[in-house]
Structures are given as structure tokens and as C-alpha cells.
């Protein structure tokens, strides 16, 4: 399974940035989120289609050191790397892309254009940083981008397609489409040839049996002997007819399976009809209002804030006799992520959830918590423990700075002690083990 670079980029485009962008552009947060959801796979798809373009690869390399990730809202629109790159990726179709996103998300064209620059900046900045952190050269970046081609269409939100952007498969992945068409044509020719041969064989066999029947019928003395030849003839004709219909059915099925839908992507009708509903891509989580004693926090339904508030309101914390009754229930941060390899820099969108935790602790001043840090199974374990401990300490210090330090009883880094994903798995799969968590304590 290839690394999905969109998973890397999402940390830069979290709720905090969405809220800031909505305020700056005068749009709703839902509209901004919807637009980003459509732009992100489109931009990654544009990069994937230009994976072997030296100019695009060079732009990604430069972006990692340009500081663009630190100023997405303020610097993306005027950054020459971004404007040049968009022209290389989309050419004269930039306007069509902006119009489609604006219509899809319900925001203005100006806002959609600004978001296109912002998402492009976040994308090349993140990919460039990943390449630098993992010592990927130009060929490594090209390979990483090429790996994205097979997943882009599946990541577009419902209601959007490459065709809706004017970026159909014939424009982006034309070679693949030509290959499919070639295979389809060959298959159709072979089936047609098989049908013709079957017809010819049936007709020839029927002719020979009729001749043999006529010759023998003239020599037979008994009238009942006609069935000796007529029955095999009827059976052969029936078998030939069945073979003919099966070949025609196969030809129709193959043609349907090789046709393309309105998005320009290959659609296998037979497979789609038999695919269980459980294979569908899960709907993305969206932030909702979480009630904290009349104050609304932004968070996932069933996420960290929702669970912690529910536990406190239920009296679970007050009724816990001691710390041993609380130590096994951890709440994972949904949005708090550190930049790769760092213990002092949070990804964009992380601060909002730390603020939520501060609000919860202030609303329940008798509650106490402990912070935990975790890594995946790769790398040196001593270094993993050191990194996870530093990250846990960072969050503890941030909470103290916000005025709730007295409610944080400790912070501990566990390294990969509780990691469950194999070290040989993809980076996207191992991301589940790289997390920060909080639990109640006494």
C-alpha cells in the first residue's frame, strides 16, 4: 500500500486554519471545509500528473525551505513558487477549477481562488518537508507523486469529479485510458472472431449431419429410424445456439466493463454491482458543536472533548475511588499533532484542541489529568521514548501556561511500548501509533 500524501497534508488544514480562513474570507466554516476537501485531491492529482516534470519537482524541493507552511493564509497568494506551479499544473484550466469549487462549496470565486493557493502551498510545503526529512531526491519525489495516481479519483468528495474540473482522465491520465481502449478493442475483436467461428462450425456440422441423414434415410427400410439421425441433429443445433448466445453475452459484458463514465475513469459495471456496501470509503469526520455547560466547543462527535465532558458530567470522575480506577482509560487527541521529528512545533490546527482541553479543565476545576506521548515502532526505541516524553512535556507546559497547570499531575512518554502497527507497514498506517493522549488522574 502506497503512502497517501493527502494524509500528511491534512494536519496543515485543520479546524483552526479553517476557522481563520472563514473569518478572513468572510465565508462559512462549512463552505471553507468543503472547498478544501475538493481542492486537496485536485492539487495532489495535478502534482501526480506532473510527477516527472523537473520544474514541479524543483518547486516542491524549494517549498520545504521557503517557510510557506508557517504562513499559509498570508503568504500563499503572493508566493511566486505557488503561482508558477499552478500554471504548470493546470494551465488555462485554473479558472474552471476555481469556478467548480466555488459552485460546489457555496463560496465566492475570489475565496476559492485564495484557497487554491493556500491548499497548493500546504501540499508542496508538506511534500517538500517529507522529502527532506526522508532524504528523498528528485527521483524519490517523482516516485512518491506517481504513486498517488491510482487513488485521486476515489478521494474526491461526492458531487465532484475530474471531469467537473475540466480535468478528465483523457487529459491527466491519457496513456492509461489509451491502454484500456486498446485492450478493449482487442478483446472485442477476439470475441467477435470467436462468435463467427462458432457460427461457422455449427453451420458446417449441421450441414454434414443433414447430408448424412438424407443419404442414410434413403437406405433405411423402417420409418422409425429417422429419429436415429434427427435427434442428434436437434441436440447439436441447440448446443450451437446456446454457445452463440453465450458468446454474444460475453461480448456485451466486456464492452460494458471497458466503458468510461462521465468522470473519465474506468467503470466495471459487473464488479460495481456485486461489491458489498462495506467496501465504500468511510465518510470523513467533521467538527460539530460540543456542549460544555452552555459553551460550544468545536470537536468530533464521540471524539476527545465529547467523551471527556460526558465522563465528567456523568459523575464518573467524582465516583472514582483512586487513580487505579482511571488509569486504563485514555482519550486520544483528534487534532493535536507535532511536526515530523519535532517536540516543540505543532502542526497547524492543533492549538484549537489544546484550548478545548483548557476550557474543560477550567469548567471542572476539581478534575486532574495526565498526558501521554506515543510513537510508532520504527527507529531507535531510546530516541522514541525521548521524543514522546519531550512532546508530553510540551503539552503539559502549554496547559500550565494557559492557567491549568495545577490540574496536570504528570506527563510521560511511552515510545513504541503500546504501538500495534508493524514497523514495515506504510507511513500512513503507522500514523495511528504516533499520537498524544490524555487521561483523568487522581
Question: Can you characterise this structure?
Answer:
By secondary structure, the chain is an alpha+beta fold. It is 58% helix and 7% strand. It has 19 helices and six strands. Strands 3-6-4-5 form a four-stranded mixed beta sheet. It has a two-stranded antiparallel sheet with strand order 1-2. Strand 1 (288-292) and strand 2 (295-299) form a beta hairpin. Helix 4 (54-63) packs across helix 8. The model is unreliable at 173-188 and 250-282 (pLDDT under 50).
Write a compact overview of the structure shown:
The chain has 442 residues and is of the alpha+beta class. The chain has helices spanning 5-9, 15-25, 29-49, 54-63, 72-75, 80-90, 94-105, 109-133, 138-146, 152-155, 169-172, 174-219, 226-258, 269-274, 304-313, 316-319, 351-363, 381-404, 427-430; strands at 288-292, 295-299, 331-332, 368-374, 408-413, 435-441.
Write the layout of secondary structure elements.
Layout: H1 5-9, H2 15-25, H3 29-49, H4 54-63, H5 72-75, H6 80-90, H7 94-105, H8 109-133, H9 138-146, H10 152-155, H11 169-172, H12 174-219, H13 226-258, H14 269-274, E1 288-292, E2 295-299, H15 304-313, H16 316-319, E3 331-332, H17 351-363, E4 368-374, H18 381-404, E5 408-413, H19 427-430, E6 435-441
Parallel strand pairs: 4-5
Antiparallel strand pairs: 1-2, 3-6, 4-6
Helix pairs in contact: 2-3, 3-7, 3-8, 3-9, 4-6, 4-8, 7-8, 12-13, 17-18
Stretches with pLDDT under 50, minimum 5 residues: 173-188, 250-282
Structural class: alpha+beta
Largest sheet: 4 strands, mixed
Rg over C-alpha atoms, rounded to the nearest angstrom: 32 Å
Task: State the helix count.
Answer: 19
Number of strands: 6
Order of helices and strands: HHHHHHHHHHHHHHEEHHEHEHEHE
The residue-averaged pLDDT reads 76
Strand order of the largest sheet: 3-6-4-5
Q: Residue share in helices?
A: 55-70%
Distance between the termini: 43 Å
Morphology: globular
Portion in strands? 5-15%
Amino acid at each position: 500500500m502506497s503512502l497517501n500524501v493527502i494524509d500528511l497534508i491534512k494536519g496543515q488544514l485543520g479546524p483552526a486554519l479553517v476557522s481563520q480562513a472563514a473569518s478572513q474570507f468572510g465565508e462559512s466554516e462549512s463552505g471553507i471545509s468543503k472547498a478544501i476537501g475538493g481542492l486537496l485531491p485536485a492539487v495532489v492529482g495535478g502534482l501526480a500528473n506532473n510527477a516527472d516534470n523537473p520544474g514541479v519537482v524543483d518547486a516542491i524541493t524549494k517549498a520545504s525551505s521557503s517557510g510557506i507552511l508557517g504562513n499559509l493564509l498570508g503568504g500563499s497568494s503572493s508566493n511566486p513558487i505557488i503561482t508558477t506551479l499552478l500554471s504548470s499544473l493546470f494551465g488555462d484550466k485554473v479558472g474552471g477549477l476555481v469556478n467548480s469549487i466555488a459552485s460546489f462549496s457555496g463560496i465566492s470565486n475570489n475565496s476559492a481562488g485564495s484557497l487554491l493557493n493556500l491548499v497548493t502551498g500546504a501540499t508542496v510545503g508538506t511534500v517538500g518537508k517529507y522529502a527532506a526529512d526522508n532524504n528523498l531526491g528528485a527521483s524519490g519525489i517523482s516516485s512518491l507523486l506517481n504513486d498517488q495516481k491510482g487513488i485521486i479519483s476515489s478521494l474526491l468528495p461526492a458531487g465532484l469529479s475530474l471531469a467537473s474540473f475540466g480535468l478528465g482522465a483523457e487529459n491527466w491520465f491519457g496513456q492509461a485510458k489509451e491502454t484500456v481502449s486498446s485492450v478493449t478493442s482487442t478483446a472485442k475483436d477476439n470475441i467477435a472472431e470467436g462468435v463467427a467461428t462458432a457460427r461457422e462450425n455449427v453451420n458446417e456440422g449441421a450441414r454434414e449431419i443433414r447430408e448424412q441423414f438424407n443419404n442414410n434415410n434413403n437406405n433405411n427400410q423402417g420409418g422409425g429410424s429417422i429419429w436415429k439421425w434427427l435427434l442428434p441433429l436437434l441436440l447439436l443445433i441447440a448446443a450451437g445456439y446456446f454457445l452463440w448466445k453465450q458468446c454474444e453475452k460475453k461480448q456485451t459484458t466486456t464492452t460494458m466493463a471497458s466503458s468510461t463514465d462521465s468522470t473519465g475513469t474506468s467503470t466495471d459495471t459487473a464488479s460495481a454491482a456485486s461489491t458489498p456496501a462495506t467496501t465504500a470509503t468511510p465518510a470523513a469526520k467533521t467538527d460539530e458543536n460540543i456542549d460544555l455547560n452552555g459553551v460550544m466547543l468545536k470537536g468530533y462527535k464521540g471524539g476527545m472533548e465529547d467523551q471527556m465532558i460526558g465522563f465528567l458530567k456523568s459523575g464518573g470522575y467524582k465516583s472514582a475511588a483512586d487513580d487505579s480506577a482511571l488509569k486504563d482509560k485514555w482519550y486520544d487527541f483528534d487534532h493535536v499533532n507535532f511536526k515530523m521529528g519535532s517536540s516543540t512545533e505543532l502542526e497547524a490546527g492543533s492549538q484549537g484542541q489544546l484550548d478545548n482541553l483548557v476550557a474543560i479543565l477550567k469548567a471542572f476545576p476539581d478534575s486532574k489529568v495526565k498526558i501521554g506521548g506515543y510513537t510508532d515502532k520504527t527507529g531507535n526505541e531510546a530516541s522514541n521514548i525521548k521524543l514522546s516524553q519531550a512532546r508530553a512535556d510540551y503539552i503539559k507546559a502549554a496547559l500550565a501556561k494557559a492557567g491549568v497547570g495545577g490540574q496536570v499531575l504528570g506527563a510521560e512518554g511511552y515510545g513504541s511500548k503500546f504501538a500495534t502497527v508493524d514497523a514495515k507497514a506504510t507511513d500512513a498506517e503507522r500514523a495511528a501509533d504516533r499520537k498524544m493522549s490524555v487521561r483523568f488522574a487522581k
